[in-house]
Specification:
- The complex is a heterodimer of chains A (138) and B (382).
- By secondary structure, chain A is mainly β.
- Chain A is built from one helix and eight strands; from the N terminus they run αββββββββ.
- Chain A folds into two domains: 49 residues, no CATH class; 77 residues, OB fold (Dihydrolipoamide Acetyltransferase, E2P), CATH 2.40.50.
- The longest helix of chain A is centred in the N-terminal third of the chain and has 8 residues.
- Chain A is globular.
- In chain B, α7 crosses α11.
- Chain B has a nine-stranded mixed beta sheet with strand order 3-2-4-7-1-8-11-10-9. In chain B, strands 5-6 form a two-stranded antiparallel sheet.
- The longest helix of chain B is centred in the middle third of the chain and has 16 residues.
- The two termini of chain B are 22 Å apart.
- Chain B has 382 residues and is an alpha/beta fold.
- Classes of the chains: A mainly beta (138), B alpha/beta (382).
- β4 of chain A pairs antiparallel with β5 of chain B.
């Protein structure tokens, strides 16, 4: 698909999130770790909610996690997702102690369960945007 | 200082609720406001405080201009999505009880069906910014999807069933059939609910509220003034507002099966000096069936995880132990951001609930819920 044809919502980039999106583009998701107290936080934001430091290190995520919850959408809510229906969206507890939501690929919806092990993958959406996706651990 | 019994709802007003009002949003809000002002026995110039709806489609200046109010002394905004209406009641109480204003008008109105659709508006709200940055690109976009993650986890942890969510939709629809100003006028069975199309599993179409047009308004006055006004005062015994941890993004919340309501409820019940068993009628913000069940747990009507059983076997029906949403709610009357819930509770406590009047209703509760987790609670008496 050419970028001009990409019709899904694009993330608005900002100073706080750019390293995250850049890391996905490089195929290794990075998370913010507070440079003062070490608390890992996600999604990216400027201040540590534990010690209020602005200093941050970007650490590589293992990509391993477990299913916290999920939904199987049969309605797109945005025309760009019609081609993906039915679409499984999964909330995952990452090994690093934070959560994230992304599409779940490679599994039938009725095979989903809480605590099911999953691993992170990367799918190029456009030349400049790579999205995280989860797959079952095989 | 406690706000308990310091303030009363002294006027209510509602327009016709429909799928196509044929009126502007400003006109709907002015119509509802003038009805509430007349109901209270006031004139527009008596209104000295206004809390417009948080989307700021209509602002305080519009009321000054259209109603000819010459000395507005107080205005504020409570941008909590569906929790805004009851949050505005709390804000009005602080203004009235402290003497800053005498009569605060809280108007809401929208063309949520014929105009800008509610789903489109939600996505543009600044409270949803983080969602837009990190989850919308993957397709996690709209409230039915966001809340489905909550509902699915509740089902997996506690064995909650879709048929139990259906009980909520069916009980509320039955009440709408008794209301001449309700949009939905066909009976619904559990089977109808189960046959409705899947939107975002586990939430079906009949788990979702309406998108509708209309306006509603209430007036909050000091209790000492309320005694001499046109209507029987409905006193506000307790009120509370609560925001969940990670308010702007559900998936980051420590416990996604708990709402801000769990923080608001002890404040409201504590102020009121009553407990859930004292509540005769409850108008529960019902954007989705699951959200009703979750609020009933967070309010303390039952334990966390027991909501599915609680709503079953007729308990929440009009003749049940805890009648809820006697007007038909957002699910079957109209989506007026829960201001229709506030108006309905006042009617029930005045004894003017019509065919859906709960016999001998003396103490009632109304909730707001919105912005992905904010919860508000008000407890009132006659």
């Amino acid at each position: 698909m050419s970028d001009a044809a990409y019709d899904k919502p694009m993330p608005p980039l900002n100073r706080d999130s750019k390293p995250y999106w850049d890391s996905l583009q490089e195929g290794s998701m990075r998370l913010q770790s507070c440079a003062e107290c070490g608390k890992v936080r996600h999604y990216p934001r400027p201040v540590c909610d534990s010690c209020h430091s602005f200093e941050v290190e970007w650490v590589r995520a293992s990509g391993k996690g477990k299913v916290h919850s999920w939904t199987v959408s049969h309605h797109p809510f945005h025309p760009g997702f019609i081609v993906d229906l039915p679409m499984t969206l999964v909330t995952v507890d990452l090994e690093e102690g934070v959560r994230m939501c992304a599409q779940m690929h490679g599994v039938e919806p009725d095979q989903m369960s809480i605590d099911m092990p999953v691993e992170l993958g990367y799918e190029a959406a456009t030349a400049d945007l790579t999205l995280p996706v989860f797959r079952p651990v095989t | 200082m406690s706000l308990r019994d310091k303030c009363a709802v002294t006027g209510i007003g509602e327009t016709e609720y429909s799928k196509n009002s044929g009126k502007s949003v400003i006109a709907l809000q002015m119509e509802a406001s003038l009805k509430a002002i007349a109901d209270a026995g006031l004139t527009p110039n008596d209104i000295d405080g206004i809390i417009p709806y948080g989307n700021l489609e209509v602002v305080a200046e519009d009321f000054i201009t259209n109603l000819g109010i010459h000395d507005l002394r107080y205005s504020a905004v409570t941008p909590l999505g569906g929790a805004s209406s009851v949050a505005a009641v709390q804000a009005a109480m602080t203004a009235v009880a402290s003497g800053v204003a005498n009569h605060v008008l809280i108007p809401i109105g929208r063309n949520g069906s014929s105009g800008e659709r509610i789903g489109d508006r939600v996505q543009a709200m600044p409270q949803f910014r983080i969602l837009g940055e990190y989850e919308m690109p993957s397709g996690n976009i709209a409230p039915p999807q966001l809340y489905a993650h909550m509902a699915r986890r509740h089902m997996e942890l506690y064995g909650t069933k879709s048929e139990q969510l259906a009980e909520i939709a069916v009980a509320i629809r039955a009440n709408a059939l008794l209301n001449d100003n309700a949009i939905m006028n066909k009976p619904m069975t559990i089977e109808d609910h189960q046959n409705s199309r899947m939107i975002s599993d586990p939430l079906r179409l009949f788990d979702c509220c309406l998108e509708s047009d209309g306006g509603a308004a209430v007036i909050i006055s000091a209790s000492e003034r309320a005694k001499d006004m046109a209507q029987q005062p409905i006193y506000i015994m307790g009120v509370g507002e609560g925001h969940p941890d990670s308010p702007s993004i559900i998936t980051q919340r420590p416990d996604i099966t708990t709402l801000g309501t769990a923080k608001a409820a002890p404040r409201a019940f504590g102020m009121a000096g009553v407990s859930p068993k004292d509540i005769d009628v409850a108008e529960i913000y019902d954007c989705f069936t699951y959200i009703v069940m979750c609020q009933l747990e967070d309010l303390g009507f039952c334990e966390k995880g027991e909501g599915g059983d609680f709503v079953s076997n007729g308990r929440i029906a009009l003749d049940g132990e805890l009648p809820i949403n006697t007007h038909g709610g957002l699910l079957s009357q109209s989506h007026i951001v829960g201001m229709n819930h506030v108006c309905e509770l006042v009617k029930q406590l005045r004894g003017t609930g019509g065919k859906a009047q709960v016999a001998d209703a003396e103490i009632g509760l109304v909730t707001g819920y919105g912005d992905m987790g904010d919860g508000t609670v008000a407890i009132m008496r006659n």
